[in-house]
Structure formats: structure tokens, C-alpha cells
Amino acid sequence: CCCCCCCYVVVVVDGLLLVYVTRGNVCKMEGKPEEGKKRKREDEPNNDRNLRKHLISPIPATAGHPKKLAVGMVGLPARGKTYMARKLAYYLNWIQLPTSLFNHGEYRRRRLGGQQLASFFDPDNKKGLEMRLEMAKKAISDMMEYFHVKGGQVGILDATHSSIKRRQLVLEECSKSNIDVFWVESLCSDDKTVAENILNTKVKLPEYSSLDTPEAVADFKQRIKYYEKCYAPLDADGNEENQSFLKIMDKGRRFMVYRPHGMLQMRIVRFLMNVHTKPRCIYLSRHGESFDNKSGRLGGDSGITPAGLEFAQKLGAYIQSEKLPSLKVWCSNMKRTLQTSAFFKGVEQHKSLDEIDAGECDGLTYEEIKEKHPALDEKRQKNKYYFRYPRGESYRDVVERLEPLILELEREDNVLVIAHQAVCRCLLAYFKQMPPEDIPKQLPYLEIELHTVLKITPGPDGCTIEQIFLGPVAVSTQQDPPMPPT
Questions:
Q1: What is d(CA 414, CA 89) in angstroms, rounded to the nearest whole number?
Q2: How far is CA 433 from CA 190, 285, 422, in A?
Q3: Model confidence over 401-448: pLDDT tens digits?
Q4: 355 is catalytic
């Protein structure tokens, strides 16, 4: 895996694919860090003749994944299927693979008003069974429209798919359009975990708005019992031996990966094997104000100003006041983040957290770019997300190199990330769960001010993001998007 984040050892035994995950090496440091190294380009002539002709990232978002994919969730209620489906959708959209979620519960609530109690899910309730089948077909139909009309790449069917017959319905409809199906089954044998999930999420559903908590819990447990009557786990040795699927057992304690096909399915497996639901916080911060920030210059490797040093001290005190049971601190290889992290021990350096490479424009101000390279400035203003600096990077490139780090972030507990403006924007867009169509337009302009910490708390319904200004006041490097032509 790139960026030395993880190492995957893959073994195939009788058609069963086993994936062993080991941690990659990261650079650790104790106490005060050494000064970062400056980027050198003495071997590269600095003139317009050598500027790249392609200034926009040429690789389309779906490169390597030409075939569309339906992902079907499988499992009894209160097993974390919706949480995993949402996380997967946010991740795929962030890497610009257009993905949409089709939740059967939402279809039922829109169609019937969302007041159905446990008896509606009784397999002997013929009317309820017919209506649920009707809504399952509607979800599949909408997914097909998403594929063929709206240009979607991945559709996630978020439902129990508890019987072989119901899963066969999905397979038959997808086969008509030559669309592969990958199943993700969540199994949990821990009654305590299921009970916690019911209390934390299920009693808040619209159908229980008129019931008190004990009544809602009892009704949902009865719903689970009805589903258990017809539940058939995915079977690699029986009628479903030709299917492709991932089994996640007991909140990720064990996994089974069976017959995945292609890069996209393996990408999904890799992501879901790192997701966990334990409470945690992720702290996102830029480095302290640097001398290049003060002079308005791009890139470079300058140190931090006295104001930046004051922020570094305040950051250390703030994190200490959070009284976290455990914490990892990550920073880039650049001098300004190393100096900002000097008040922490055991800091891990990740090259993937380095600022966007401005290439031939490194060390210039925006005014100098506009004066010396007006064509570059014009193209950057038109499409900042895909614009690539000559011999440098685009925001799209930064997202690509941050992908392995996102997997590491999903696997960890509490983490403080000290990075740079473009990098923090890319990470924030992931946690903000931005729609794919908004990412190219909004991500490059997300406001990440200096000397401010973003406290991100993941939850079942998304992430809560708090903004904490620690001070002191620093120079602003925020640029507004260009005004549309009148």
C-alpha cells in the first residue's frame, strides 16, 4: 500500500481470500524535533518552457473502476449495517467515486409514514410482507436509475436482505444490466452490544416517537425475533458459493473475505476492515503561523513566527486539558509542523501530510504567479480542485495520497493531526461528508484558519465538528472563490 501506511498479505486457499493486515513503519520522534528539510529543485530548470502542458489532473475519478457495483448490506437489525453503509458511501464519494445510499427504512417511512411497529415485520403478516417487497423493488429500481441516468458508480442497498430469496431478487435485477453485486454482512453474537445499539440509535426512530424507552426497546427486540425466523447468513459452501462478500463479525474482531472481484471490491474490503464504532475524537489543526504565511508565499519550508510558537504552547495545553485516555499525534515532515508539535512526545511524522506541492510556483506569492504566469492563474481560478501546479500537485492528487491515511485514522482512537491548509481541507471534506458534486467546487475553499483547532467527534449520524480558536491572532491565508461572470 502506498505511503507506507499498511502492508497487506493476501493468501488464496480454495477460493477463499484471506487478508492479513500489518502496520507500516512511521517515523517516530521524541521531544523536540529536528528541523525539516527544504525541498530542492536545483536539477530542474525554472522557466516557462519546462512547465507541464497538462495543468489539470488528467485521471478521471472512476479510472480503474469502469464497471458499476451494487453493494448489498446483510444482517439482522441493530448490527451496525447503516453506520457502515454511510461510512462507506462518504469514503467512496470523497475519493470521487459517485455513490448513493438506498435505505429500505427510509423508503418505508416515506411510503407508509413510519409508524410501523414489530408486527409489521412478522413473516406471517402477508400484507406487511407484500409492502416490504414492493419497497425493496422500488429501491432496486431507483438504484438502476442512479446507475443509468445519473451516472452513479456504486449503489448501496441498506437493508437486512435476511433471506436467500430476497438476495436473489437483487442478483437477478443487477444481472440484467451486467452489474456486479458485493455483499457486506454484519454478524454480532454479543447481546450487550446489540442492546447498546438499540438504546443509542433504534429507540430514536420515528416509529417510536410516541413510545417511552422501555416500550420502544421491547418492540424492537420483538422485530429482531421476527427477522430471525427467516434469517439465512451468507453461505460460502451452499447456494451462494459463487457470490462475493465480506463478513464482519462482532464489530470487527474477525473478518471473512470471500471471492472479491476487482480493485473496487478490494478497496471496499480494505476500508470496512478499518472502521470501528468506539467513541473517540480527531483533532485537526494547521501548524502555527510561519514566516512564509506572513509574507504570503506558497509552499516553502520556513519555521514558525513568535505568534506560531505561542499557538504551539496553547495547543499543547488545550490537548492536555481534554484529559484523553490515549492520544496519537501526527504531523508532516515540514519544519513548521515539527516545531508546532514540539510540546508533544512520541510524535509520528507522515510524509502524506506534507502541504500540497506548488511545484514551479513554490516560494512565489499569488500576485507573482498572476504576474509571471497569467495563464496558470487563470486555469487555477477556473478549476482549483483539478488544477495541478507545474511539476507539483493538485487538490485531487492530495486526496489520493491521503487515502491510506484515512484508513489509518478510521482504525485509531484519539488522534491529533497537525498539518497544512490544503491537507486539512481535504481531511475536513471527508469528515464533513460532502456530496461528490460539491467536492470540486467547495473543498479548495473550506476555511481552515491558523491557530484554530477542529474537534471532530464521529457518531452514528455523522460527525460533530467544533471549532476552537486558541489564539493568538494570525495572518489570514483564506482565499474566496472567484465571482461568477455576470
A1: 23
A2: 30, 18, 17
A3: 999 999 999 999 999 999 999 999 999 999 999 888 899 999 999 999
A4: yes
Q: How confident is the model at residue 35 (pLDDT cuts 50, 70, 90)?
A: very low
Q: Per residue in 444-457, pLDDT tens?
A: 999 999 999 999 99
Q: Say if residue 156's pLDDT is above 70.
A: yes
Side chain identity at 365, as an amino acid letter? Answer: T
287 in active site? yes
Residue bearing the bigger pLDDT, 251 or 186: 186
Query: Using an 8 Å Cβ cutoff, are 10 and 257 in contact?
Result: no
Catalytic residue among 240, 289, 354, 355: 355
Q: Which of 161, 287, 420, 451 is catalytic?
A: 287
Catalytically annotated residue among 3, 5, 6, 158: 158
> Whole-structure pTM over 0.85, yes or no?
no
Write down the catalytic residue from 3, 188, 361, 426.
188
Note if 5 is an active site residue: no
Q: Where are the alpha helices (DSSP H) in 11-125?
A: 81-94, 104-112
CA angle 310, 313, 319 (to 5 degrees): 135
Q: Is 478 helix (H, G, I), strand (E, B) or coil?
A: coil
Q: What is the largest CA-CA distance in the chain?
A: 77
What are the backbone angles phi and psi of residue 180, rounded to the nearest 5°? -70, 155
Rounded to the nearest 5 percent, the helix, strand and coil shares of the chain are 40, 20, 40
To the query of whether residue 158 is one of the catalytic residues in this protein, the response is yes
Q: Can the peptide bond before residue 472 be classed as cis, meaning omega within 30 degrees of 0?
A: yes
